[in-house]
Amino acid sequence: MKESAAGKDLDLSVFTPYRIAFLGRMMSEQLGAAYSSEDLTIPEWRVLAVISQQEAVAARDVVARTPMDKMAVSRAVASLESKQLILREPTDDRRVSALRLSPKGKSVVERVSAIALEYEKALLDAMPEAERAAFFAGLARLESAVGSDRDQKTRPRAAE
Length: 160
Prior knowledge:
By secondary structure, this protein is mostly helical. It has helices at about 15-35, 40-50, 60-65, 70-80, 105-125, 130-145, and strands at about 85-90, 95-100. Strands 1-2 form a two-stranded antiparallel sheet. The longest helix has 22 residues, at about 105-125.
């Protein structure tokens, strides 16, 4: 009798969700290595990046805008506070604090943002302009298909 393995028809090497998750993790790790001199973890950078997009952000909004759970965001926020990169300020709602970049945090975000943009440029330079446009269009369609509610402003434009 022939043995069969569960999931034998599932080939992860061509399974799109797996490939996207794997690629995302590889890119995060490479980018994290590129800014390792800033003494930031990947979760800390994600939190700083989200906070840098607005004057003040609630931690729950950081959770909504990153692929991180509430506990990971909470740990990153506590670490960033201890490094004096963010400030936690009270709001009218006592249950929620506003997170802001400190002056030191703004400086770190400027340096790491430059590294991140350079990394992104090197990645995108691996594709001709027409492929990039098709890639961004396909990415937008996939985001729409999974019901992504990411803000339109955060999506790259095909011409970039």
